[in-house]
Amino acid sequence: MSLRLKLTFLYSTVLALTMLIFGALVYYFMERNLNYEADSAVAGIAGEVIRSTKIVGSLRQVVLPDVDVFATPNTYIQVVDRSGTVAAQSNNLGGQIMPLSEETLRRAAGGSDFFETVMSGSQGLRIYNRPLVLEGQVIGVLQVGRILGPTEAALKRLRLLLLFGGGVILVLAGTAGWLLAGAALKPINRITETASAIQARDLSRRINYSGPGDEVGRLAGTLDNMLDRLQDAYHGLEKAEAAQRRFVSDASHELRTPLTTIRGNVELLRKMGDADPATRAEALADIAGEAERMSRLVSDLLVLARADSKLELKKEEINPVTLLTDAARTGSALSGEVDFQAGDFSALEGYKLVGDADYLKQIFLILIENAFKYTPAGGQVRLEAGTDGSFLEINVTDSGIGIAESDLPYIFERFYRADQARSGEGTGLGLAIAGWIATEHGGAISVASKVGEGSTFTVRLPIA
Question: What pLDDT is stored for residue 278 in this prediction?
């Protein structure tokens, strides 16, 4: 059973029960009201008859009024003595006698009035019995009766109206409920269609609900937001997969090349033995260099693995002047044919950083080594630092080959290497490591570059 049919059925059931209870209450109170009016009418007529009764002479004869004055087409009057003999009756009885039982005479002899319902032929008759009392003795009974046909006819019409009208209302309400349920569930159908489309990997589909902000509207909005996040996550996964494939290609190349070199030199050493000391020394130097290169690659991968495991750095107060001076000293030893210059760091005296000194120094060395790597001989690399009072800014500027604008958004991603840098010795992990270290210290790293004019990397670190 569909949800729409369930809602319609539930709504119709509740409405039917409500109408049934309401109709029963209406019928009950209408029946009580009609019977009460009929009883009040016959009791009033009986009172008028009693008030018109007179006693004549010493024989204590009871002189009754003309009962036809009080009779109506549906109301009959009859007076009987204690033995049940009719003393007077209204002409509309046509000589017939209203039903009178021994039980009625016994109850009337008790001196109290009462109502009773009897059958006269095929129709009901409501009779009011009122004793006639003289000097404390019951001498007869006054009976005023009214046929129940009109009352029963009115109640029958009410029953038909309630049944027929209720049925019509129930059908109309059920149809309206079916239409309203369809309108209310229309966004759900759109959600289902969107989900089906997403199963076909069309993550761009959205519900785009434009109705009121009710429960369904909030659900549609929440699902749209969730789909946005899913699409972003999916695209992120696609990028990660692309980066992973790129890394596997780069890593396999980076590892295969030194391994090939090492294996070739080992084979050479095996064949020549100690016959040529100079060649032997050169082969051993190649083996040592390639082993060191592999060691750097493994070390970079280890740092990123620690980053993925949410490694908490051991932080303490650091003197930025000492940190930058050490980095500049190490950079000078690595500069080779590039002109390396370090700025004046005295303006940073009195300021402190909170962080891990080894990792912070690694950021600067990564940037300095990258600058050396992509700056041709005779070029210039400069390390400078300053502060704006809240952050320490360290700039590494080079006059190297620069970075293409299309590569700038991706250079801090893991395993990414610009096409013009892929022939170098790097692994594409250094800048990713630098970005992670800066973030862990509450800072950030950015770059400005133009192809052929060089690059400037800026590290911002919060001052303690």
Answer: 80
